[in-house]
Amino acid sequence: MTPETLFSLQGKTALVTGGATGIGRMAAEALVRAGARVLIASRKGDACEAVAAELNALDAPGHAEGFSGDVGTEEGVQAMLDEVKSRTDTIDILMNNAGITWGAPMGQFPYHAWEKVMSVNVAGLFELTQRLLPMLMKSGTPDDPARVVNIGSVMGEVPMGDGAYSYSASKAAVLHLTKILAKELAPYHVTVNALAPGPFVSRMTAFATGDEGTRDKVGKSVPLGRVGRDDDIAGCMLFLCGRGGSYVTGAVIPVSGGINVVTAGNIFAEAL
Asked: What pLDDT shows up at residue 204?
């Protein structure tokens, strides 16, 4: 087996939610470069169409299509499903990337920030996966399962806080839900895995990664000394969605530069 066959996605059809920016955009490009047909959806349909045009100009073996889609409501999920079905009868890869955050200090965190964040990051993710299951199950086989990749966060693994209470809780729910779905869907030849990213340059983290100065400061607080790069996401996606990931399910890959294993100080060594 060659590296090309290990990571090729030729003939596969993928749906990437929230694919116009940030981690979704990084993943969409990786999938197109690997030969997949990639449907890109987010609340801003014009942005998705623009990204699809950019990806199609790469002269890569794959192809992209962009359209509007919102997983924040039941009606929005159904509308996205209808749009997907109008374009394809096959989904081999689902990347649940769409997400929102909310930040406010303790004592000022608004009640409505919980429902808004959880409806997109957890309920929308689950409902879209549930409604796409017939298409995923149709495409999956024992040797080549259909793939679901959920985007969690290192903030769902470790108690970082940073004022993003509902976001952190929602991402913890995503990681646990990933393992539940992996267990339940394995008999149907569908793998379910998750990425738990640390800091990457995106619209969501623009306040801290939007310029080189703040980005370097954030990177210095990461054990591996930098913020994430496009290739870090691309490599994980090609592994999970290609031949190498066909025997992996229920995994949470910590794409966080080591933040996930930062613990308390070495208290005995420090005391001595």
From this structure: 63
Cβ proximity of 27 and 53 under 8 Å: no
Identify the residue whose tokens are 């470790």.
158
Q: What pLDDT sits at residue 268?
A: 65
- 170-196 as b/e: b if 16+ CB within 10 A: bbbbbbebbbebbeebeeebbbbbbbb
DSSP H/E element including 39: strand 37-42
CA 268 to chain centre: 39
pLDDT of residue 215: 75
Q: Which CATH number describes the domain made up of 3-260?
A: 3.40.50.720
Interatomic CA distance for residues 114 and 228, integer angstroms: 27
Question: pTM of the entire structure?
Answer: 0.93
Model confidence at 118: pLDDT above 60? yes
Closest CA to 191 of 244, 123, 233: 244
Q: Where are the alpha helices (DSSP H) in 186-211?
A: 206-209
Q: Is 87 strand, coil or helix?
A: helix
Active-site residue, from 111, 167, 188, 247: 167
Whether 247 sits among the annotated catalytic residues: the reply is no
Q: What are the distances in angstroms from CA 271 to CA 68, 161, 216, 263, 266?
A: 57, 28, 32, 17, 9
**Domain boundaries along the sequence of the chain:** 3-260
Could you tell me where the DSSP H helices lie in the chain?
A: 3-7, 22-33, 45-56, 74-87, 112-118, 125-139, 165-185, 206-209, 212-220, 230-241, 267-271
